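User: Could you check the structure of this?
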Amino acid sequence: MNKEIRKLRQSFSYALHGLKMCMITERNFRIHLTAACYVSLFAFLGRLDSVRYSILCLCFAVMMAGELMNTAIERLCDKQATGYDQTVKQAKDIAAAAVFVCATFCVIIGIVFFVPSGALFRAFHTLYTHLWALGLTILSVPIAIGFIFGLKK
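Assistant: Sure, the predicted structure tokens are below.
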């Protein structure tokens, strides 16, 4: 039993290491993570209902998982290719296209959830009427930009 728990703990350790490595080395992953944070903020400020917020969280998970898979495929392709290889290029392009499809549908879902329901208007109204929240949001932008572009491989 103790050996099984140790193996399980080790598998979680590997997963967290992969997540950390992707967060440090992949700018696009950091962009998606930052976007998820801002969308979550606007969902809260816009009083999005729990069902829609749950679906947004599912979108975040699918987007992050897609980016993680894309990174894994790119790394494997780079490891196998000794020079230019058309098949490797196609595999990497297809993996990137998968992330693009995920991102496109996440944006569409966000628009459908925020605009007709008035949640986007409520979020901006909350920021307008609570200047401290607006100030904190504005102050977070340079931090977010630093997070996205500041980490190096």
